[in-house]
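tl;dr need the bound structure. longer version: we got a ligand (fructose -6-phosphate) that a collaborator sent over and nobodys looked at where it sits. i said id run it. heres the input, straight from their email, havent touched it
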Amino acid sequence: MRIIRAKDYEDIGRKTANIIAAQIQLKPDCVLGLATGSSPISTYQNLIRMYESGDLDFSQVRSVNLDEYKGLTPDHDQSYAYFMNENLFKHVNIDHANTNIPSGMAPDGAEEGKRYDELIRSLGGVDLQLLGIGANGHIGFNEPCDEFIKGTHQVTLAESTIKDNARFFESIDDVPRYAYTMGIGSIMSARRVVLVANGVNKAQAVKDCFFGPIKPTSPASILQLHPDFILVADEAALSLVADQL
Ligand code: F6R
Protein backbone atom coordinates (compact mmCIF):
# COMPACT_ATOMS: atom_id res chain seq x y z
CA MET A 1 0.00 0.00 0.00
CA ARG A 2 1.25 3.43 -0.91
CA ILE A 3 -0.16 6.51 0.77
CA ILE A 4 -0.17 9.84 -1.00
CA ARG A 5 -0.84 12.62 1.48
CA ALA A 6 -2.84 15.52 0.14
CA LYS A 7 -3.51 18.87 1.75
CA ASP A 8 -7.24 18.92 1.11
CA TYR A 9 -9.99 17.77 -1.22
CA GLU A 10 -8.79 19.91 -4.15
CA ASP A 11 -5.28 18.56 -3.75
CA ILE A 12 -6.65 14.98 -3.75
CA GLY A 13 -8.36 15.79 -7.06
CA ARG A 14 -5.16 17.08 -8.68
CA LYS A 15 -3.00 14.21 -7.47
CA THR A 16 -5.51 11.49 -8.40
CA ALA A 17 -6.24 13.00 -11.81
CA ASN A 18 -2.49 12.94 -12.52
CA ILE A 19 -2.37 9.19 -11.79
CA ILE A 20 -5.38 8.52 -14.03
CA ALA A 21 -4.01 10.77 -16.77
CA ALA A 22 -0.72 8.85 -16.73
CA GLN A 23 -2.69 5.60 -17.12
CA ILE A 24 -4.58 6.97 -20.14
CA GLN A 25 -1.40 8.30 -21.73
CA LEU A 26 0.44 5.01 -21.28
CA LYS A 27 -2.50 2.90 -22.51
CA PRO A 28 -5.00 5.00 -24.49
CA ASP A 29 -7.56 2.15 -24.67
CA CYS A 30 -7.29 1.33 -20.97
CA VAL A 31 -10.23 0.12 -18.91
CA LEU A 32 -11.02 2.51 -16.07
CA GLY A 33 -13.12 1.37 -13.13
CA LEU A 34 -15.04 4.44 -12.00
CA ALA A 35 -16.84 5.51 -8.83
CA THR A 36 -19.56 8.01 -8.01
CA GLY A 37 -20.32 9.94 -4.81
CA SER A 38 -18.75 13.18 -3.63
CA SER A 39 -15.17 11.87 -3.21
CA PRO A 40 -14.14 11.60 -6.90
CA ILE A 41 -15.75 14.84 -8.13
CA SER A 42 -12.61 16.98 -7.75
CA THR A 43 -10.69 14.24 -9.61
CA TYR A 44 -13.20 14.31 -12.46
CA GLN A 45 -13.05 18.12 -12.58
CA ASN A 46 -9.28 17.97 -12.99
CA LEU A 47 -9.56 15.30 -15.71
CA ILE A 48 -12.06 17.52 -17.55
CA ARG A 49 -9.63 20.46 -17.33
CA MET A 50 -6.83 18.30 -18.76
CA TYR A 51 -9.10 17.23 -21.61
CA GLU A 52 -10.14 20.83 -22.31
CA SER A 53 -6.55 21.98 -22.44
CA GLY A 54 -5.74 19.26 -24.97
CA ASP A 55 -3.60 17.18 -22.60
CA LEU A 56 -5.88 14.15 -22.40
CA ASP A 57 -7.75 12.09 -24.97
CA PHE A 58 -10.56 9.78 -23.85
CA SER A 59 -11.52 8.62 -27.35
CA GLN A 60 -10.33 5.05 -26.85
CA VAL A 61 -10.91 4.74 -23.09
CA ARG A 62 -13.35 2.09 -21.88
CA SER A 63 -15.02 2.31 -18.49
CA VAL A 64 -16.91 0.16 -16.03
CA ASN A 65 -18.64 1.72 -13.06
CA LEU A 66 -18.73 0.11 -9.68
CA ASP A 67 -22.38 0.25 -8.82
CA GLU A 68 -25.92 1.43 -9.45
CA TYR A 69 -29.07 1.73 -7.37
CA LYS A 70 -31.63 -0.95 -8.14
CA GLY A 71 -34.84 0.47 -9.57
CA LEU A 72 -33.49 3.79 -10.86
CA THR A 73 -33.58 4.46 -14.60
CA PRO A 74 -30.44 5.95 -16.17
CA ASP A 75 -32.22 9.31 -16.58
CA HIS A 76 -33.17 9.51 -12.87
CA ASP A 77 -31.15 12.40 -11.46
CA GLN A 78 -29.86 10.25 -8.57
CA SER A 79 -28.89 7.27 -10.69
CA TYR A 80 -25.18 6.67 -11.04
CA ALA A 81 -25.57 6.61 -14.83
CA TYR A 82 -26.87 10.19 -14.62
CA PHE A 83 -24.08 11.15 -12.19
CA MET A 84 -21.36 9.87 -14.52
CA ASN A 85 -22.79 11.71 -17.47
CA GLU A 86 -23.13 14.98 -15.57
CA ASN A 87 -19.78 14.82 -13.78
CA LEU A 88 -17.50 13.35 -16.44
CA PHE A 89 -18.76 11.69 -19.61
CA LYS A 90 -20.56 14.61 -21.25
CA HIS A 91 -17.55 16.89 -20.70
CA VAL A 92 -14.90 14.70 -22.39
CA ASN A 93 -14.58 12.82 -25.68
CA ILE A 94 -15.28 9.37 -24.28
CA ASP A 95 -17.43 7.23 -26.60
CA HIS A 96 -20.64 6.53 -24.66
CA ALA A 97 -20.75 3.08 -26.26
CA ASN A 98 -17.55 2.34 -24.33
CA THR A 99 -19.01 3.26 -20.93
CA ASN A 100 -20.65 0.61 -18.77
CA ILE A 101 -22.68 0.75 -15.56
CA PRO A 102 -24.68 -2.05 -13.94
CA SER A 103 -28.29 -1.70 -15.06
CA GLY A 104 -30.48 -0.48 -12.22
CA MET A 105 -33.49 -1.66 -14.18
CA ALA A 106 -32.31 -5.27 -14.44
CA PRO A 107 -34.89 -7.24 -12.45
CA ASP A 108 -32.69 -10.19 -11.50
CA GLY A 109 -29.53 -9.52 -9.46
CA ALA A 110 -27.94 -12.89 -10.25
CA GLU A 111 -28.44 -12.44 -14.01
CA GLU A 112 -27.17 -8.86 -13.97
CA GLY A 113 -24.17 -9.88 -11.90
CA LYS A 114 -23.27 -12.61 -14.37
CA ARG A 115 -23.70 -10.27 -17.35
CA TYR A 116 -21.54 -7.55 -15.75
CA ASP A 117 -18.74 -9.89 -14.70
CA GLU A 118 -18.62 -11.37 -18.21
CA LEU A 119 -18.49 -7.87 -19.63
CA ILE A 120 -15.53 -6.95 -17.40
CA ARG A 121 -13.77 -10.16 -18.46
CA SER A 122 -14.47 -9.48 -22.14
CA LEU A 123 -12.82 -6.06 -21.78
CA GLY A 124 -9.68 -7.75 -20.45
CA GLY A 125 -10.19 -6.66 -16.84
CA VAL A 126 -9.78 -3.29 -15.20
CA ASP A 127 -6.47 -1.43 -15.55
CA LEU A 128 -7.14 1.20 -12.90
CA GLN A 129 -9.97 1.10 -10.39
CA LEU A 130 -10.93 4.38 -8.70
CA LEU A 131 -12.71 4.03 -5.35
CA GLY A 132 -14.20 6.13 -2.59
CA ILE A 133 -14.82 4.69 0.85
CA GLY A 134 -17.98 4.70 2.95
CA ALA A 135 -17.83 5.91 6.55
CA ASN A 136 -18.51 2.24 7.44
CA GLY A 137 -15.60 1.03 5.29
CA HIS A 138 -17.62 -0.05 2.26
CA ILE A 139 -16.16 0.01 -1.26
CA GLY A 140 -18.58 0.04 -4.15
CA PHE A 141 -21.66 -1.05 -2.24
CA ASN A 142 -19.87 -3.96 -0.58
CA GLU A 143 -21.22 -3.32 2.89
CA PRO A 144 -19.69 -4.75 6.09
CA CYS A 145 -20.80 -8.37 6.30
CA ASP A 146 -19.46 -11.79 7.24
CA GLU A 147 -17.81 -12.64 3.90
CA PHE A 148 -16.04 -10.97 0.99
CA ILE A 149 -18.37 -11.49 -1.99
CA LYS A 150 -16.40 -11.98 -5.21
CA GLY A 151 -18.56 -11.05 -8.18
CA THR A 152 -21.14 -8.42 -9.08
CA HIS A 153 -24.22 -8.94 -6.92
CA GLN A 154 -27.28 -7.35 -5.42
CA VAL A 155 -26.90 -5.80 -1.97
CA THR A 156 -29.24 -4.50 0.67
CA LEU A 157 -27.84 -1.11 1.62
CA ALA A 158 -26.80 -0.66 5.25
CA GLU A 159 -28.96 1.74 7.27
CA SER A 160 -25.87 3.94 7.79
CA THR A 161 -25.31 4.12 4.00
CA ILE A 162 -28.96 5.03 3.43
CA LYS A 163 -28.58 7.83 6.01
CA ASP A 164 -25.26 9.01 4.47
CA ASN A 165 -26.76 9.10 0.97
CA ALA A 166 -30.08 10.69 1.97
CA ARG A 167 -28.41 14.08 1.44
CA PHE A 168 -28.66 13.51 -2.31
CA PHE A 169 -32.40 12.69 -2.24
CA GLU A 170 -35.46 14.77 -1.32
CA SER A 171 -36.15 12.55 1.66
CA ILE A 172 -34.61 9.45 3.23
CA ASP A 173 -37.63 7.44 2.06
CA ASP A 174 -36.60 8.10 -1.55
CA VAL A 175 -33.20 6.40 -1.12
CA PRO A 176 -33.32 2.98 -2.80
CA ARG A 177 -32.86 0.05 -0.41
CA TYR A 178 -31.05 -2.18 -2.92
CA ALA A 179 -28.16 -1.74 -5.33
CA TYR A 180 -26.00 -3.72 -7.71
CA THR A 181 -22.28 -3.59 -7.04
CA MET A 182 -19.09 -5.03 -8.41
CA GLY A 183 -17.77 -7.55 -5.90
CA ILE A 184 -14.57 -7.57 -3.89
CA GLY A 185 -13.01 -10.11 -6.28
CA SER A 186 -13.60 -7.87 -9.29
CA ILE A 187 -12.13 -4.87 -7.45
CA MET A 188 -9.12 -6.89 -6.29
CA SER A 189 -8.54 -8.10 -9.88
CA ALA A 190 -7.94 -4.55 -11.10
CA ARG A 191 -4.29 -4.09 -11.97
CA ARG A 192 -4.08 -0.86 -9.95
CA VAL A 193 -6.49 0.46 -7.31
CA VAL A 194 -6.62 4.12 -6.26
CA LEU A 195 -8.85 5.04 -3.32
CA VAL A 196 -9.61 8.66 -2.48
CA ALA A 197 -10.61 9.63 1.06
CA ASN A 198 -11.27 13.13 2.32
CA GLY A 199 -12.68 14.66 5.45
CA VAL A 200 -12.79 13.74 9.09
CA ASN A 201 -15.88 11.55 8.67
CA LYS A 202 -13.67 9.07 6.78
CA ALA A 203 -10.89 9.05 9.41
CA GLN A 204 -12.23 6.07 11.39
CA ALA A 205 -12.77 4.00 8.21
CA VAL A 206 -9.22 4.82 7.04
CA LYS A 207 -7.82 3.76 10.41
CA ASP A 208 -9.89 0.55 10.65
CA CYS A 209 -9.45 -0.54 7.03
CA PHE A 210 -5.83 0.36 6.30
CA PHE A 211 -4.22 0.19 9.74
CA GLY A 212 -6.28 -2.60 11.29
CA PRO A 213 -7.01 -6.29 10.64
CA ILE A 214 -8.28 -7.55 7.27
CA LYS A 215 -11.88 -8.64 7.73
CA PRO A 216 -15.16 -8.46 5.80
CA THR A 217 -16.71 -6.24 8.45
CA SER A 218 -14.20 -3.61 7.22
CA PRO A 219 -14.61 -4.32 3.48
CA ALA A 220 -11.88 -1.96 2.22
CA SER A 221 -9.34 -3.68 4.49
CA ILE A 222 -8.80 -6.34 1.80
CA LEU A 223 -7.02 -3.68 -0.26
CA GLN A 224 -4.05 -4.07 2.11
CA LEU A 225 -3.39 -7.28 0.14
CA HIS A 226 -3.54 -5.65 -3.30
CA PRO A 227 -0.10 -5.49 -4.98
CA ASP A 228 -0.66 -1.99 -6.39
CA PHE A 229 -2.95 -0.11 -4.04
CA ILE A 230 -2.66 3.67 -3.64
CA LEU A 231 -4.53 5.61 -0.97
CA VAL A 232 -4.84 9.32 -1.71
CA ALA A 233 -6.07 11.00 1.45
CA ASP A 234 -6.15 14.44 3.00
CA GLU A 235 -4.91 15.41 6.46
CA ALA A 236 -8.42 15.13 7.95
CA ALA A 237 -8.96 11.58 6.67
CA LEU A 238 -5.49 10.62 7.99
CA SER A 239 -5.97 12.40 11.32
CA LEU A 240 -6.41 9.20 13.38
CA VAL A 241 -3.28 7.56 11.97
CA ALA A 242 -0.97 10.59 11.84
CA ASP A 243 1.42 8.93 14.32
CA GLN A 244 1.80 5.85 12.07
CA LEU A 245 2.76 7.63 8.85
C1 F6R B 1 -19.89 5.08 -5.27
C2 F6R B 1 -19.39 4.07 -4.36
C3 F6R B 1 -19.36 4.29 -2.88
C4 F6R B 1 -18.77 5.64 -2.48
C5 F6R B 1 -18.80 5.79 -0.97
C6 F6R B 1 -18.31 7.16 -0.53
O1 F6R B 1 -19.83 4.59 -6.60
O2 F6R B 1 -19.01 3.05 -4.81
O3 F6R B 1 -18.60 3.26 -2.29
O4 F6R B 1 -17.47 5.74 -2.95
O5 F6R B 1 -20.11 5.62 -0.50
O6 F6R B 1 -19.23 8.12 -0.93
P1 F6R B 1 -18.87 9.66 -0.87
O7 F6R B 1 -17.74 9.87 -1.81
O8 F6R B 1 -20.12 10.37 -1.34
O9 F6R B 1 -18.51 9.97 0.55
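gonna send this back to them w/ a short note. DSSP finds seven helices and ten strands in the chain.
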